[in-house]
Amino acid sequence: MLDMHKEELLIDSEVHCHIIGNRGRNLLKLMDMFKVDICFPRSSDPNPDLVVIQGAEDDVLEAKNHLLQLEEKYLLRNFELTVEVDPQYHSKIIGRNGAVISKIRKDHNVQTKFPERDSANDRVITIIGHEKDAEAAKEAILKLVEEQEDMHKEELLIYSEVHSHIIGSGGRNLFKIMDMFKVDICFPRSSDPNPDLVVIQGAEDDVLEAKNHLLQLEEKYLLRNFELTVEVDPQYHSKIIGRNGAVISKIRKDHNVQTKFPERDSANDRVITIIGHEKDAEAAKEAILKLVQEQDNVQIIEEMEVPYNLHRLIIGHKGTEVKNMKELYDVMIFIPPIEEKSDVITIKGPPENVAKVKEALKEKIEEIQDNEKLYKEHVYIDSRVHSSIIGNGSHNLLKIMNLFKVDIRFPRPSDPDPDLVVIQGSEDDVLAAKDYILNLELKYTKIKNSEYFFK
Prior knowledge:
Elements: E1 5-10, H1 16-20, H2 25-34, E2 37-39, E3 50-55, H3 57-77, E4 79-84, H4 90-94, H5 99-108, E5 111-113, E6 124-129, H6 131-149, E7 152-157, H7 163-167, H8 172-181, E8 184-186, E9 197-202, H9 204-224, E10 226-231, H10 237-241, H11 246-255, E11 258-260, E12 271-276, H12 278-298, E13 300-305, H13 311-315, H14 320-329, E14 332-334, E15 344-349, H15 351-372, E16 375-380, H16 386-390, H17 395-404, E17 407-409, E18 420-425, H18 427-453
Domain K Homology: 3-72, 77-146, 150-219, 224-293, 298-366, 373-442
Keywords: Repeat, RNA-binding
Pfam families: KH_1
């Protein structure tokens, strides 16, 4: 250790990582090559440039010279200059998928940094490399800009609503147009003051051809967005839509239009909107009105007496029963509001279908009335434990009903007695189910009381 020579030298901290290399590989090679120990400063050291070499004197001096040469090499490679370029030319300098700037980087062995859009320095492009290479890359960029400035530029106004159609998904349509006419086309950004202003740049003849093409596209898409409305009684909407949307899909396809139906019970629930070329939209409107006329011509209206207290069961939970019946028999069924206490249900549809619905309703009424003749027990169960007996998603209740082959009705929030539970079925099954539920009540009440006591 007494023969060891130690040398301290200052190496710009900016190039340390290049000398050290990934995971210290370059540094290990250097230490093996010169048979020395080289220590680079830690982040906590007072002098970030101080490097220490230790070993035999001749080896240390050779290693020192080599490190200084590496420093000079990397510093030269990190020469940095900037060039100011109007942001409108940045996309041309970068090129499609970065092709133009990649060639400049490769040809001149440099790196480049472009500014963030709309930043304070959005004109400044930075070039990094050997000074000579960076200057050459700068000249290449300025030459590109000069070529762009010499090109013919045309500004035109295209209605912003059709921009997305012209540009296409992922800009595909726009790229095709630019390739076709050999021009550059810039659509406005959301922050631009004029949302309709489009700029075309290129050779004069190409620019004029591209301009005419864009104006034709604008006219085409604006015509396609012609909109008209047709008022149709909501009772016919399901017929116009058809099973699984089959009827309206055919109208859309035949006439090349789009349609919008109103929300149910909205203020404009009669208004159907049609969008497309004016001629196509008018034809689609006629097709819809013809359907409505046909429905009026072939349909009959019949009334049927159904006790109003059974209407709730005919309608079903959230209207599912009556909706299924309408779809199954392709008819309209009008059930009066419960407050009217009317026994009359109105059915509208083709004669054969109306007859089938009436028969189905008769069977449903008989089924309900048969159920009402079954043995029935009223049981008072503490409402606090109803949810425990019913279970999540009525899972427990369904198990009990299947086990005892009975129907069990728990009260609704609007019912006058919150504790009253009704069990219906054969007498033996009802009594067995009653005992089972009373035992559950006792069990869950004890749990509730203990929870209250230990609060």
